[in-house]
Amino acid sequence: MASVKGLGGRLYSGETSFNIVGNAKRWYIISLIFTALSIGTLAISGLHLGIEFKGGSAYTFTSTTATVEQARSAVAGSGISGEVIVQKVGNDKIRVQTGSLGPAQSDAVEAALTSTFGVQVADIDTQIIGPSWGKEITKKALYGLSAFMIVILIFLAMTFEPKMAIAAIVAVVHDVLITVGIYALVGFDVTPASVIGFLTILGYSLYDTVVVFDKVRENTRSITSSSKQTFTQATNLAVNQTLVRSINTTVIALLPVAAILFIGGALLGAGTLKDIALALFIGMFVGAYSSIFIAPPVLAHLREREPAMIALAKRVNGRVATSVTSSATSMSMPVHPGQRRGPRNQPKRKGRK
Fold first, then answer.
1. Where are the domains of the chain?
2. CB atoms within 10 A of CB 311
C-alpha cells in the first residue's frame, strides 16, 4: 500500500518510471492483433446496419404478453420474405424490423400484428425508410467522419507540429477500427446514435492524446541544447507524468457510460441508449489505451529519425558511456607502492621543553 501511495508524485518527478515508449513493439503487436481481428470480423460478418442506413420498415407496438417468437411467426405468416429482426424494447414493447416493403406488404404486416396481438393499427408506430434515403444518410455520415479527420489534422498541425498530428490520427484510426470491429462482433445495429457515439469517442481520444502531447512539447522544448536525455526518454517521462491523470479520467468517464449500457440498455431495454453506450464504452477504453501506448511511441519513432535527434541520441549515449567508463576506471585503479588513499596522517610536533 505504501508503494501505491504517492505514486503520481514519483511518476511526475521521474523517481519512478514505466518504460512505456521503450516497449513500443509490445504495444504495436497487441494493437495489430486486435486490429486484424476487427478487420477479419468486418470482412466475414460485416456491420449490421439499421434501417436508417440501408432502408426498411420498422413496426413498434405495446403488448405486455407478446414475445419475440410470436412476433416473428406473425410476420412470417404474412408472407414477408427476407431478413426480419424482432427485438423486445423494455418490458412491454416489441419492435419488428424488415427490409424495404411496398404499401401492400406493409399493410399485410400490420394486419398480422393486429390479429395476433389484438392491437389497433393506430397503436402501431410504423417507420418506413426508402433505400435512397438510407444511402443519403450513409453518405452524410461518411462525409462527417472525413471532415472531422481533416479538421483535426489541420488543427493539431497548427497547434503542435505535423508529426504530432500524424501520430494522433494513427491513434484515432486505431480506435475506430477496433471499436467498429467489436461492434460487428457483438452484432448491434449501427444507427445514427452509433455514429454519434463514434464521433464522440474520437473527440475523447484526441482530448486525452492532446494532454499527453502538450506535456511532451513542454519536456522537449529545448531538448537539443542539452545532452541529458533523448527525445524518446523525454516522451516517456511525459507519458508517466500524465499516466495517473489519464487513468483517473478514463475510470470516471466509464462509470456513467457503463451505467447507461448495462442498466439502460440491458435492464430497461432502451435500444438507442444501448447503441450509443456500447460505442462510448468501447471507444473510451480503447482511446485511453491509444493515447498512452500508441500515439507517444509513434511520435517518438517519427522524431527520432530527424538529424537533430539522431545527433542528440549520440551525445546522450556518448555521455553515458563516458560516465560509466570513468566510474569503472576509478574503481579499478591500482594502488602503487608508497601511495596511500584517504587522508594522510601528519606527524605530531613535539613541544619545546
1. 15-49+133-303, 56-127
2. 12
The per-residue pLDDT for 2 is: 43
Strands 93-98 and 48-49 come out as unpaired
The list of the chain residues with pLDDT below 50 reads 1-2, 328, 338, 340-341, 353
pLDDT at 25: 93
The alpha carbon of residue 266 and the mean position of all alpha carbons in its chain are separated, in whole angstroms, by: 23
Annotate 80-110 with b (16+ C-beta within 10 A) or e (fewer). Answer: beeeebbbebeeebbbbbbbbbeeebbebbb
Retrieve residue 167's grid coordinates. 501520430
- Beta-carbon contacts of residue 162 (< 8 Å; ≥ 6 apart): none
Rounded to the nearest angstrom, the gap between the alpha carbon of residue 49 and the centroid of all alpha carbons in its chain is 22
- List, in order, residues 6 or more apart from 138 with CB less than 8 Å away: 49, 53, 54
pTM: 0.73
Per residue, the 3-state secondary structure of 31-76, as one string, reads: HHHHHHHHHHHHHHCCCEECHHHHCEEEEEEECCCCCHHHHHHHHH
Integer Rg of the chain from CA: 31
pLDDT for position 303: 92
Among 296, 299, 262, 255, residue whose Cα is nearest residue 278: 262
Cα–Cα distance measured from residue 95 to residue 89, given in angstroms and rounded to the nearest whole number: 7
CATH 3.40.50.10490, applies to 56-127: no
**Into which CATH architecture does domain 15-49+133-303 fall?**
Up-down Bundle (1.20)
Cβ pair 182, 38 in contact under 8 A: yes
DSSP-based three-state secondary structure for 126: strand
Are residues 206 and 288 in contact, defined by beta-carbon separation less than 8 angstroms?
Answer: no
Long-range contacts of 117-126 (CB under 8 A, 24+ apart): 117/61, 117/63, 117/65, 117/66, 117/70, 117/71, 117/74, 118/63, 119/61, 119/62, 119/63, 123/61, 123/62, 124/59, 124/60, 124/61, 125/58, 125/59, 125/60, 125/61, 126/57, 126/58, 126/59
Distance CA(120)–CA(341), nearest Å, equals 105
Whole-angstrom distance, CA of residue 219 vs CA of residue 237: 8
